[in-house]
């Protein structure tokens, strides 16, 4: 009895694993510069235990774009990138926290619950152009600050990490 | 005033509540502010900014450390430079640094660093060879700019401290405001508490007052002798006072909540009561409520009905309209009243009986007296010696005096019964006065008193008045004057005057007699008043003369008074309102006396045997032929058979009365249908005379009969002589009795009376022989009832039966009994 439940749970994991594995096949190992390395509890990998994403891989994922002002820039800018929601689905993160780290090793905690449709994106284009490190690139977590007052809080501002290059998914 | 208080209380309550709301709103706002401030403090953006600023130094150091390494890694150098570059770019452009950028020192430092970056970018962006070659220069400018970066990193501190101070100050201010608002809220709450406490106290006090009032009211209601019933709009009983419990015999507990109509309204009045309640509910129409005291019938617990007096008022309360009824049991009062009315009616009936008795007795006495006087007159015509003639004269004098006394009594009775009526006929005043003086002159002469009469002023000879009444009055006054004046003078003066209302005539009778004492003068016109001196006794009298004179004068709408001083004689005055009359050309009746009438064939209809005999004797002495009939029926039958020259008809007779008989004769076609019919009556009222003429009679002859009057009638045409007669029903008496008894009681009693008469007639007509005493007593009993109901003719008839039965005149009794049913039928129809 107990055994059968256990085996059923195992089957489920296997099915899920197969599904994501098939999906992961679409993300090939990086050929260009790696912009984002994903580690931790992730369902998809393409380089040993990690998921290495170059600009092409990121561009392949469904992208989201919106215009917003930020407290760090002047005027409104259009940001385009991978929705954190899409990203969370990609890596199979349903709960827990993203530990997002910048080039200078500055790390912020972003709860997975922030990854909702219409929520933050991992922006790789600003005003249609790639962002250099000098312009807080190459990746910048941007919330749609102008869409909701909830996104104009200190906590959200602190989560808006720029010069992002690593994400660890922890449960 | 309570409305104002109420208004004021409402206003202050509203203000307090509003103040509370305002304070609460302020608290909410301030609390929000405070929480915002605290949140701002908690997630201090400035700290973040400060961290970001200090990060410039960290990132610069990371860059410079890489750049100064003994074995430099170019990729790392470039990466760290870019990071620093990005940092400075952020400081240059980010909104969060706007405040700092207003500081010139900061801007100066920032521009120096920007210059360094611009210089450095050219080195960093060169190819690896170029970078390696320029690395010492990069190190040099880095070392040069290092203190600037350090100052920049620290420059924010002062600004941030100030900002923090401002924020703390703002928080403190908000907290103070919050405290103030809290204080005011507490104040408002305190006021509310005070206010509520006070209104609560007031409410308690008011409740206590209301309770006191209610207790007082209950005491008032409880001790009221009148029953008090309170009901609601639906007629349900709410209160039933102890007095009401006693009156109605219900307990409060048993009737509370019940419909009032069920409890106290008699069944036969329920319909009206329910209709009244319905009417009030429909359109508020109130017939009893608020209309003062009303007497109605009510019902006790044991079903007994009794009269109550009640007053109902309505009042509007919180529970809707209520009705308060005060009721008083008046059954005792009503019973007392009824007893009183019965006593009064009994007294009235007694008085009536007395009057009737007097009238009847006078009448009954007169009939035999007429017989006596008539026979005396006949006797005088027979040969008498001197002594016998003297005795005859004395007897006649006594007889006539007795007759006049009886007439007096009859007149008084009639006047007091309201039956005395006067006539209006042409009267020759001078002739009347001359007659009176002539008739008294003998008496005056024997008193050695001179008697004279005359006009004072213009003579007024012909007036309309009641000749006989006037004659009676003046005769009485002159007679008195002459009677009391010895060796003196009596004068009668007539004086006519014209007033606003017409003509009046005053008669003054003055004498030089002894006069009348003032004390006596006051009551001289009262009944049975005579002087009390021996002298008065000498002249004697019934004491009715003046009282009758006064009654007659009053009946003629006149006045009578006297002026007298004891020892100096008296003056009596009679003043009468009169109308002028045309002189009448009447033949002198006295002439007729001398003319002998041719012998006539006369029918004499008279029930009284003596009267019949007297009249026949008188007529036969004058040579007439007389046929007798004993009642109206016989008279009619005889008139039907033979032709008579004259019919003398008594009015009140058994079997058929005179009027009916006359009427029947006139309507028939017998040989005597056109013969002159003269009524014979002892008393006929003025208004009854018309009836006689209507019945077909041509003249009236008053009893007692005298030869002279008989002769006049035989001569004359329509000679009217005042007479009285009995009628079937005295309608006036009937209506009086009706009024006294009330319609219902009268109907009931008259029904019983009718039964009595029917019984009597039935009993009398049975074949078996009855004891005379029984007949007399039963006839007497019913006669009494007949008198009460004013059935005069029946009363008379029954009395005759009684008298005949007592006298043992069986024939007469049988005859009278035969006439009874017809009379009773006539009486019954007349009663209706």
Quaternary structure type: heterodimer
Task: Determine the fraction of residues in helical runs of chain B and give it as a percent range.
Answer: 55-70%
Poorly predicted regions of chain A? 1-25
Shape assignment of chain B: rod-shaped
Radius of gyration of chain B: 66 Å
Q: Structurally, how many domains make up the residues of chain B? A: 6
Largest interface comes to: A-B, 19 and 18 residues
The CATH topology label of chain A is Sulfite Oxidase, Chain A, domain 2
Under the CATH scheme, which class of chain A? Answer: Alpha Beta
Number of helices of chain B: 28
* Unreliable stretches of chain B: 533-539, 586-596, 717-726
* Main beta sheet of chain A: 5 strands, mixed
Distance between the amino and carboxyl termini of chain A: 30 Å
State the main characteristics.
heterodimer; A: 171 residues; alpha+beta; Sulfite Oxidase, Chain A, domain 2; five-stranded mixed beta sheet; five-stranded antiparallel beta sheet; disordered N terminus; B: 832 residues; alpha/beta; Beta-Lactamase; Helix Hairpins; 28 helices; 17 strands; rod-shaped
What does this entry look like structurally?
The complex is a heterodimer of chains A (about 170) and B (about 850). Chain A contains 4 helices and 10 strands. Chain A has about 170 residues and is of the alpha+beta class. In chain A, the strands form 2 sheets. A 5-stranded mixed sheet of chain A has the order 2-1-10-5-6. In chain A, strands 3, 4, 7, 8 and 9 form a 5-stranded antiparallel sheet that branches. In chain B, helix 19 (about 610-620) links the parallel strand 13 (about 600-605) and strand 14 (about 625-630). Chain B is α/β, with parallel strands linked by helices. Helix content of chain B is about 65%, strand content about 15%. Chain B has 28 helices and 17 strands. Chain B has 6 domains: about 10-190; about 225-330, 2-Layer Sandwich (Beta-Lactamase), CATH 3.30.450.20; about 335-415, Signal transduction histidine kinase, dimerisation/phosphotransfer (DHp) domain (Helix Hairpins, Orthogonal Bundle), CATH 1.10.287; about 425-580, Histidine kinase-like ATPase, C-terminal domain (Heat Shock Protein 90), CATH 3.30.565; about 590-715, Rossmann fold, CATH 3.40.50.2300; about 730-830. The interface between A and B is medium-sized, with 19 and 18 residues.
């Amino acid at each position: 009895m107990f055994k059968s439940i256990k085996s059923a749970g195992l089957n489920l994991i296997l099915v899920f694993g197969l599904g994501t594995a098939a999906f992961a096949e679409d993300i090939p190992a990086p050929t260009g510069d790696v912009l984002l390395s994903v580690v931790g509890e992730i369902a998809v990998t393409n380089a040993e235990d990690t998921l290495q994403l170059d600009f092409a891989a990121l561009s392949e994922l469904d992208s989201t774009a919106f215009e917003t002002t930020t407290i760090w820039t002047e005027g409104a800018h259009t940001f385009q990138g991978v929705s954190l929601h899409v990203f969370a689905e990609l890596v199979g993160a349903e709960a827990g926290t993203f530990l997002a780290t910048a080039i200078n090793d500055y790390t912020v905690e972003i709860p997975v619950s922030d990854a909702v449709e219409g929520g933050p994106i991992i922006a790789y284009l600003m005003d249609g152009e790639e962002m250099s490190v000098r312009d807080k690139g190459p990746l910048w977590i941007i919330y749609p600050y102008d869409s909701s007052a909830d996104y104009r809080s200190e906590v959200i501002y602190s989560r808006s990490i720029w010069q992002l290059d690593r994400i660890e998914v922890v449960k | 005033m309570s409305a104002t208080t109420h208004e004021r209380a409402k206003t202050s309550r509203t203000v307090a509540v509003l103040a509370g709301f305002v304070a609460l709103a302020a608290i909410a706002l301030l609390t929000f502010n405070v929480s915002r401030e605290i949140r701002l403090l908690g997630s201090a953006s400035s700290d973040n900014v400060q961290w970001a600023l200090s990060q410039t130094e960290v990132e610069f150091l990371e860059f410079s450390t890489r750049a100064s390494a003994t074995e430099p890694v170019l990729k790392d150098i470039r990466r760290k430079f870019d990071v620093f570059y990005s940092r400075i770019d952020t400081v240059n452009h980010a909104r969060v640094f706007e405040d700092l950028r207003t500081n010139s020192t900061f801007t100066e430092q920032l521009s120096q660093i920007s210059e360094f970056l611009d210089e450095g970018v050219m080195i960093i962006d060169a190819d690896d060879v170029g970078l390696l070659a320029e690395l010492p220069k990069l190190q040099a400018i880095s070392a040069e700019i290092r203190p600037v970066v350090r100052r920049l990193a620290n420059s924010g501190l002062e600004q941030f401290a100030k900002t923090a101070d401002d924020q703390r100050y703002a928080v403190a201010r908000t907290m103070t405001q919050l405290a103030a608002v809290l204080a005011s809220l507490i104040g408002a709450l305190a006021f509310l508490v005070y206010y509520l406490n006070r209104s609560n106290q007031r409410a308690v006090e008011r409740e206590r007052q209301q309770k006191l009032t209610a207790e007082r009211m209950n005491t008032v209601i409880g001790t009221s002798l009148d029953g008090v019933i309170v009901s609601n709009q639906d007629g349900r009983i709410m209160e039933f006072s102890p007095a009401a419990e006693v009156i109605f015999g219900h307990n409060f507990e048993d009737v509370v909540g019940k419909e009032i109509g069920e409890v106290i309204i008699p069944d036969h009045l329920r319909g009206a009561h329910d209709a009244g309640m319905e009417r009030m509910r429909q359109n508020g129409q109130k017939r009893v409520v608020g209309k003062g005291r009303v007497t109605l019938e009510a019902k006790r617990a044991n079903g007994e009905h009794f009269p109550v007096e009640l007053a109902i008022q309505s009042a509007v309360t919180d529970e809707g309209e209520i009705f308060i009824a005060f009721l008083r049991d008046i059954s005792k009062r009503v019973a007392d009243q009824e007893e009183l009315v019965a006593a009064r009616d009994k007294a009235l009936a007694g008085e009536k009986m007395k009057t009737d008795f007097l009238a009847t007795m006078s009448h009954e006495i007169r009939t035999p007296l007429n017989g006596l006087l008539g026979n005396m007159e006949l006797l005088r015509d027979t040969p008498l010696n001197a002594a016998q003639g003297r005795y005859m004269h004395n007897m006649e004098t006594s007889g006539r005096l007795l007759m006049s006394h009886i007439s007096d009594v009859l007149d008084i009775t009639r006047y007091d019964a309201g039956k005395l009526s006067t006539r209006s006929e042409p009267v020759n005043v001078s002739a009347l006065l001359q007659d009176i003086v002539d008739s008294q002159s003998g008496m005056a002469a024997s008193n050695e008193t001179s008697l004279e009469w005359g006009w004072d002023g213009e003579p007024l000879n012909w007036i309309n008045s009641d000749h006989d009444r006037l004659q009676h009055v003046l005769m009485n006054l002159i007679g008195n004057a002459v009677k009391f004046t010895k060796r003196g003078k009596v004068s009668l003066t007539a004086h006519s005057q014209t007033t606003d209302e017409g003509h009046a005539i005053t008669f003054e009778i003055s004498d030089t007699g002894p006069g009348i004492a003032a004390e006596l003068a006051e009551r001289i016109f009262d009944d049975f008043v005579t002087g009390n001196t021996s002298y008065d006794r000498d002249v004697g009298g019934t004491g009715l003369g003046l009282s009758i004179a006064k009654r007659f004068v009053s009946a003629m709408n006149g006045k009578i008074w006297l002026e007298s001083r004891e020892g100096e004689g008296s003056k009596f005055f009679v003043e009468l309102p009169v109308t002028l009359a045309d002189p009448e050309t009447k033949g002198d009746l006295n002439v007729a006396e001398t003319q002998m009438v041719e012998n006539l064939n006369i029918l004499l209809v008279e029930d009284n045997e003596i009267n019949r005999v007297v009249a026949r004797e008188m007529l036969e002495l004058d040579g007439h032929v007389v046929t007798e009939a004993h009642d109206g029926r016989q008279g009619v039958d005889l008139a039907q058979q033979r032709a008579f020259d004259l019919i003398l008809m008594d009015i009140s007779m058994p079997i058929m009365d005179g009027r009916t008989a006359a009427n029947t004769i006139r309507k028939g076609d017998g040989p005597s249908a056109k013969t002159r019919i003269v009524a014979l009556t002892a008393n006929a009222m003025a208004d009854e005379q018309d009836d006689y003429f209507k019945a077909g009679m041509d003249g009236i002859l008053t009893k007692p009969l005298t030869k002279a009057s008989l002769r006049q009638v035989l001569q004359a045409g329509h000679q009217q002589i005042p007479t009285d007669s009995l009628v079937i029903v005295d309608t006036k008496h009937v209506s009086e009795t009706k009024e006294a008894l009330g319609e219902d009681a009268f109907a009931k009693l008259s029904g019983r009376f009718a039964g009595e008469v029917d019984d009597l007639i039935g009993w009398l007509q049975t074949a078996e022989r009855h004891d005379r005493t029984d007949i007399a007593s039963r006839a007497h009993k019913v006669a009494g009832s007949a008198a009460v109901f004013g059935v005069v003719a029946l009363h008379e008839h029954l009395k005759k039966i009684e008298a005949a039965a007592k006298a043992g005149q069986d024939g007469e009794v049988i005859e009278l009994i035969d006439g009874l049913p017809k009379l009773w039928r006539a009486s019954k129809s007349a009663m209706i």
